[in-house]
UniProtKB/TrEMBL annotation, chains A, B:
Domain MoaB/Mog: 176-313
Listed name of the protein: Molybdopterin molybdenumtransferase
SMART domains tied to this protein: MoCF_biosynth
Reactions that this protein is recorded to catalyse: adenylyl-molybdopterin + molybdate = Mo-molybdopterin + AMP + H(+)
CDD domains per the UniProt record, alphabetical: MoeA (cd00887)
UniProt keyword annotations, A-Z: Magnesium, Metal-binding, Molybdenum, Molybdenum cofactor biosynthesis, Transferase
Pathway the protein acts in: Cofactor biosynthesis; molybdopterin biosynthesis
Length: 644, 644
């Protein structure tokens, strides 16, 4: 309807190759002379020749005495020779110059006796022994550092030694970053509805630094053809490469394409990748200009997979290959045949193998990049990858880091965040907890399938009106254990003052409800209560609207998007909402029994048994910690054993 | 004799463990609040909680129209529904807020028709479809970043989005660096005999940055107990860790031990490592203070293997494990049973496997660190490693870099440096040449043993009075080839003005000669000429004094350390020395025939056939390039075939 430009669908590799061939002969990098003290990590553009030898005089390699070797030739154990200071020797320390008349050094350890101005020796000195000759390290006028050399600390040391003052290096590669969008505000402005706080430019800044370019941030430009063009022209003049953020698609106010088309040349508009499709690759006067999509994850994919290889090529540096591990996929991934897809995953190291769990959230969620441990690339011609398949994961975090992470898949509670932070603090950053919120039921299945170390669960069994154990008896065949975590109060969260005067489940009819996702313990509880009251799901307006955490549910109520939802007291409390208690429930950690012996779980138990942890949880309100830390082993035949 | 302190011999790992246990509970790191724009690569000391949700209002995830889902429920292909702008819908672009009365977005692509203030739709909108709900990315008051988190670009983005202004991080870890030594001068002072230009502090500065500490450089302090103590006290007050360079052994003017012993505690003095033995590990008021030996390679070994793991531990960061490759050792390595030895090596990738060639030079040579590709650690209880053994090499360079390096082992000529620089320049830094100077004969054997890509040789056969081919016939059984490089003039290098009036080989008796190393073509030539003249080696004073390059030999003559030596015209020319021509010789590149097809050798041939290369060589003087670039194949039965 509004579409005025055609987006191509060029595969990533093909696009990169085509674009690089266009840029190939466009420019030679500028160089500059800089002081060697500023040269660390810069690249030499020309060879450096030594100006002084090192050492620049013959000097002693040992503490001892400098001698004439000829005067020592007949020394041996039967023929101790006495040398006279000044005439036959001088004392030298390591590094001291050897006077011209001497040609060897006898080290302290080989001197038999010393008194006043005499030494006695018992073996001859070989000519030039223990002398560091002039030029041993560096010979004046020799090539010290070649061209295109990345200056390392030892190179700086060598250059100082060789009396080099300045060195010719390639200038820093400036990358101009232009944020565009009328809705954008900077981070210092108070945001109003409709504003978007601009942060992509800071994401790009950090990434460009990581690629070893020099980011130059330009001010936000509103969606105005002439204004954006003006900014682009300025950046192209001042930089070696320009990134224009957003406006790269084919919407009403997407001007990047037309601007590049007017003052330069567009090579490619549209890549066969997801997210990241509406990227624009062009050049102005031979300088690359790239239109980057607005969603942060789309932008990140284009930065990592297009901007990075181009920039590294243009600064003559290698592109380190991503570190790859093999992981079993914990969940089926669907993918379009039209695009190569980049799926962010969390990784766990469980039973000595990696498990990758896709992060569900969209291209607009910067936090998915904060939390991702790796990325799976699903090729263009593949429809999806089945659960359990071994996949290649490009690591975004250190492997060690992943191996020291306790994986928690299951229900959400704020308590899990507190456990994470306490684990991190008590281990000085070595051990952490990674939580994925998929609800209690999925969490229990993750333990069954050995895809998680622990699963926080609160599964209410309607027959026995008890928590967790009946579900485990029914669904799990292995020996497992439960770590009692908290008893928490579930209830109905409503706006401050309870404007609809909600008192019980019966009052949920005719208000705007907001629900939790399928499989969550809270939803199972709601369904049970509705059933008990004889209320049909279809009578609840908003039953289908799902949030995956207590916090996001409470926030939606606070914002007036819904009138009521079920959740824990602590979430209501945090947002200053009213709360109608419904019941107390057992929020426990499920795990395979053999996990109890691992360091992972030992650290976890240490944390939840600490006073500081308990205090923090109590202060949230709505928690009872009487049983916290107790361990219940559930044997295959489900004899319940209590311990601790 | 002068020794007043006892050096212990503590194994590295044991020393590190012991020292860390002493430092263990000594200090908690200080923290500070900084602006998030400065937080990149810093570590959070406390968890960060979101101050604003993202998005902070419900907004459109697509370009399209916002609608009331209820008003669309009955739309289908048979029942086209018309919606009125303002009443039934508003236009929204991606990111636009959804007015409270609407609860779904229909995207452009699903709108059948639009004119003026009406749109027609043919399918219903599901409630909340294509809406990014408040808090989809970030929920206010949720934990955004945990403690002990290394801030990455995406974290900065997320914090801006969540309206975080400042973040609490651990303060930078300051490492004070104190260079001590009366003989030290800074790099701006004109050096006199006996001075040493101080550069270790800059080596340390770069390494500390690499370890993610913050180096603080202190001025040079002369060898004076009180002055060094004063500087140490100041640094200990201002920094988190202090490095005192040199003065760590037990010599006359080594004060570091006594100073630490007076104002703090020495934990270890002397490690079972070579180089690096006389290191001191101590602490003052719980802050680590380390005495580092003065020789740069010893210093580097202590920095990399002691300072680095300690610093990384104290800043709560992992120590990345060194990248290790397996290589065949090209030469036997001897090692002391008393120490763990660190042997620097050059690496070549030859016939699809790595070959490691030890770099011979001593602990005083900073250039050995410039040139090293890796390090072999020989354990304390091992006497040596045999030639051909597979060894673990810790990489100091990128693996790619090593794989793109042409290995040259053999004779030295300045021309090889020019080839290297031209190779680098024409490949934009991708391909380079690594030369090891062991003389022609060893070079030839390196080709025979497949330990080098090429060997520059000039082997004079006394029987045939011709170069190279007779040696190859005699020693090599495989098909090899020769690339003709240069014809060069060998002669006697003497001081300007030829004060001893040397005219021929006969005049070498009774002057101070300086020789080249055994196996070098130049030495073989000298021996032949001496023999021809009936002169005995023992008649040549200085016959045993060896230099391994023409440049260092010429420099020694210029400096007056010897009166004459044999070498090439270009070296004499560079140092303004006089030259008595003796003969012209063929300086060729020997290689296995199958190497001719490789990219390595193709790039090499490209370079030596270039005019720029030839011009540079000609300008040095003493070279003839009539045959440069010609290839001679020497088949197994040594039928000589000429080509090119």
């Amino acid at each position: 309807m509004y579409m005025n430009k055609y987006l191509s669908n060029v595969p990533l590799e093909e696009g990169l190759e085509k674009y690089l061939s266009v840029l190939k002969n466009s420019r030679v990098r500028d160089t500059e002379y800089i002081d060697i003290e500023e040269s660390l990590n810069r690249m030499s553009s020309d060879a450096v020749y030594a100006k002084l030898s090192s050492p620049f005089y013959n000097c002693s390699a040992m503490d001892g005495v400098a001698v004439k070797s000829k005067s020592t030739f007949f020394a041996n154990e039967q023929n101790i020779i006495t040398l006279i200071e000044g005439k036959d020797y001088v004392e030298v320390d390591t590094g001291d110059p050897i006077p011209k008349q001497f040609d060897a050094v006898i080290m302290i350890e080989d001197i038999l006796e010393k008194d006043n101005n005499k030494v006695k020796i018992y073996k001859p000195a070989i000519p030039w022994q223990h002398i560091r000759c002039l030029g041993e390290d560096i010979v004046e006028k020799e090539m010290l550092i070649p061209s295109f050399h990345n200056i390392k600390p030892q190179d700086v040391g060598a250059m100082i030694s060789a009396r080099i003052d300045k060195i010719q290096v390639f200038k820093e590669f400036k990358v101009g970053i232009i944020p565009t969008g009328t809705e954008l505000i900077d981070r210092y402005t108070d945001p109003k509805i409709g504003d978007i706080i601009e942060f992509n430019s800071r994401l790009f800044e950090g990434l460009i630094l990581d690629y070893e370019g020099k980011p130059i941030l330009y001010p936000i430009v509103e969606d105005n053809y002439e204004k954006i063009k003006h900014s682009v022209l300025q950046a192209i003049k001042e930089c070696d490469m320009v990134l224009v953020n957003a406006g790269s698609s084919q919407g009403r106010e997407d001007y990047t394409y037309d601007i590049i088309d007017e003052i330069g040349e567009v090579c490619i508009h549209g890549l066969a990748i997801k997210p990241g499709k509406p990227a624009i690759l062009g050049h102005i006067q031979g300088k690359p200009i790239i239109g980057i999509p607005g969603y942060p994850v789309s932008a990140w994919v284009v930065m990592e997979n297009m901007v990075k290889p181009i920039l590294r090529k243009l600064i003559y540096k290698d592109l380190e290959t991503a570190k790859i591990i093999h992981a079993a996929l914990s969940k089926r991934v669907m993918s379009s045949l039209k695009y190569e897809e980049f799926i962010r995953v969390k990784l766990g190291f469980i039973d000595n193998k990696y498990v990758a769990t896709p992060i569900k959230r969209g291209a607009g969620t910067i936090t998915s990049l904060v939390h991702a441990d790796g990325v799976i690339r699903v090729p263009q011609n593949i429809e999806g990858i089945e659960e359990g398949s071994l996949v290649n994961v490009e690591l975004l975090k250190d492997d060690n880091n992943i191996k020291n992470t306790i994986i928690s898949i299951g229900s959400h509670d704020i308590v899990m965040d507190i456990i994470n932070d306490e684990l991190i603090k008590s281990s000085l950053g070595k051990v952490s907890l990674s939580s994925t919120h998929v609800g209690s039921f999925q969490g229990m299945l993750a333990i069954k399938k050995h895809e998680s170390h622990i699963a926080p669960i609160h599964l209410f069994d309607t027959d026995t009106e008890s928590y967790n154990i009946p579900y485990i008896e029914k669904y799990i065949e292995e020996d497992v254990a439960i770590i009692k975590l908290v008893r928490r109060t579930q209830g109905l969260i409503v706006k401050k003052g309870n404007p609809f005067n909600i008192k019980s489940i019966k009052d949920l009819v005719n208000i705007r409800y907001i629900n939790r996702q399928k499989g969550s313990g809270t939803r199972i509880l709601l369904d049970y209560l509705l059933n008990k009251e004889g209320i049909k799901k279809s009578e609840i307006s908003g039953y289908e609207r799902e949030e995956s955490t207590h916090m996001s549910l409470a926030k939606a109520i606070q914002n007036g998007d819904a009138d009521c939802g079920m959740g824990v007291y602590s979430a209501a409390n945090i947002f200053g909402l009213d709360f109608i208690p419904i019941c107390d429930e057992e929020y426990d950690l499920l795990l395979n029994e053999n996990m109890l012996k691992t360091d992972y779980i030992k650290s976890l138990l240490d944390v939840i048994n600490k006073e500081i942890f308990k205090e923090k949880v109590i202060s949230l309100g709505g928690y009872n910690l009487d049983n916290t830390g107790k361990v219940i082993k559930l044997k295959r035949k489900v004899k319940v054993e209590y311990s601790n």
